[in-house]
Design goal:
Two copies of one chain form a homodimer.
Chain A lengths: L1 E5 L3 E8 L7 E3 L2 E7 L1 H11 L4 E7 L1 H12 L4 E3 L2 E2 L5 E8 L5 E5 L7 H14 L5 E5 L10 H11 L4 E4 L2 H8 L5 E2 L3 H8 L4 H10 L4 E5 L5 E5 L2 E6 L11 H14 L4 H17 L8 H8 L3 E4 L5
Parallel strand pairs in A: 1-5, 1-10, 2-8, 5-6, 5-7, 10-11, 11-12, 12-13
Antiparallel strand pairs in A: 2-4, 8-9, 13-14, 14-15, 15-16
Helix pairs in contact in A: 1-8, 4-5, 6-7, 8-9, 9-10
């Protein structure tokens, strides 16, 4: 199975309103709830691709219960979340029916107690031996030490399990020093990590900081990868229009899927780009359009990057 | 005990953000959850005044469970909500920390099935014999017939229990014809019911439509009452500044409290005005400031209304 870790899980709630007007009262016409946090999004895409996935991280309170009910209803995803005393946070996305724009409200979430963090580390160590790969995804909740991902990367490496790290800021800076197999920063995260806004220079700098392979997601320009085996750019066949929510998580799922299927790098990148584009095209945010994915897969252009950084 | 009926219960969630900007992402700094719907607000105020209160209406799903957990933690309030298959709605109030203004998002709530509406009527009939008074509060959820309040008013009258109706629109128009003991419309609801924007004329017209007593809440101008015993105006000693959320529900609680304590009308009105003003003054929306209430109580001016309508 593939293991995904989401320390800052959430119950994602999407509201559709006619038009969002500050200081007015709104009737919500449509309510959609689903498990949230990057690792849970990655898991949903992996399960839809046919992989067995186990999710871990924290869950607590009534909102944690709602999140777990939704997980139970997701075929192919096994729930190995660790209970905490606090309540799992909610995120509320308010979609303006007139413009399609989204206003986001994110609760802070519970503070993780030291004993809860220790209980998680034990659960994680118990899960690793059955994992073909592990993804560490998203921000850290309050109470978890900033060096948490460095610790989890080292534990995975000691267990011989390939580890992908998808986070930002100081947790990324610390985590990368523990030598993860793969990081997938977007352009902003990469620039923040390396100080360089020139992607080719930046991915190589990120490799020097400890990541074996760096796959940068550059929005409409696709992916730029730097690994010991070579450097590639992978771009979708045409510019896709839609909702980019979850496109990065779908790219992570594509990379993991290609890794456990032992695909060569260009095929992994094609899978990630096609999934990402098919997510932008899907009518529901964070889902992917399967027909679009299959159609796009053969049309992603993957070229070897030869220019010097 | 006093019975309050809330057919459209809600889990009220209040978010505080630095400043609400449409189409931006916001970190919520503070989350407050409490049972919502007018009848539950009335019950909380009555319990704080020392009355025994039973609440009924509908509850369902995980949000219903959260609502009931909060009720369990409220001393003096007994939970007699009727379970339904759907999920209790959430309301989200987003308070802008810069301006103090509130943006409201109200979920539609579950559709009540015919069998659930019948189960509620049975529970209501079973509760009435122990009730000293009953309040029917708020809007009707989808699935409940528009004549619901007329039916519930008649059942209460047949059981000999004084009944207060606090709703609006067509449910009020139908309900009033069943001859409730008391209605408490605000200025807009009264004008919608009677077609008159002149309060004194309108309260008398509302009496002719079937309400034994009409107490209109006129915002900063206090209350205007017309009953078989006479007509009064009751006004707070000074203009109060604050959050008017829940002020109308506190007025209803004051009227019910005065009714079961067998106070003369002027004292009931003074209690309602003082509670209402103390709710506007309270830092938390919908709570009342007890010290302010006790201080205001003796200073409410209640005058007999002598002018002809």
């Amino acid at each position: 199975m593939i293991l995904t870790v989401t320390l800052n899980t959430a119950l994602d709630i999407t509201y559709r309103v006619r038009s969002l007007t500050p200081h007015a009262s709104h009737r919500v016409s449509d309510v959609v709830e689903r498990p949230g946090g990057k690792g849970l999004n990655v898991a949903r895409v992996l399960a839809a691709l046919g992989h067995e996935v186990t999710v871990t991280g924290f869950t607590g309170g009534a909102t944690g219960g709602q999140l777990q009910e939704h997980l139970t209803a997701t075929p192919g995803v096994r729930d190995a979340l660790v209970p905490v005393a606090g309540s799992t946070r909610r995120t509320v996305a308010v979609v303006d029916g007139r413009t399609g724009d989204t206003t986001q409200l994110n609760e802070p979430g519970p503070v993780i107690a030291p004993a809860e963090w220790i209980a998680f580390q034990e659960a994680y160590e118990d899960l690793l031996p059955s994992a073909a790969a592990v993804a560490l995804c998203g921000s850290l909740p309050p109470g978890v030490p900033v060096g948490a991902y460095a610790l989890l990367v080292r534990t995975a490496r000691a267990a011989g399990v390939p580890v992908l790290l998808d986070t930002s800021g100081e947790p990324l800076r610390r985590g990368i020093a523990a030598r993860p197999d793969l990081i997938k920063p977007n352009a902003d995260e990469l620039a923040e990590l390396t100080g360089s806004h020139e992607p080719l220079r930046a991915v190589q700098d990120a490799r020097r900081r400890g990541a074996r392979t760096v796959v940068a997601s550059l929005g409409t320009e696709g992916l730029l990868a730097a690994s010991p085996e070579g450097r590639w750019r992978a771009v979708p066949p045409a510019r896709v229009h839609g909702n980019p929510t979850g496109a990065g998580d779908s790219a992570v799922a594509g990379l993991l899927s290609g890794l456990v299927d032992h695909l060569p790098w260009p095929d992994r990148l094609a899978r990630a780009v096609a999934l990402s584009a098919a997510t932008v095209l899907a009518p529901v945010a964070g889902e992917f359009d399967r027909a679009a994915y299959e159609e796009l897969l053969g049309r992603v252009a993957v070229v070897t990057e030869t220019s010097a950084a």
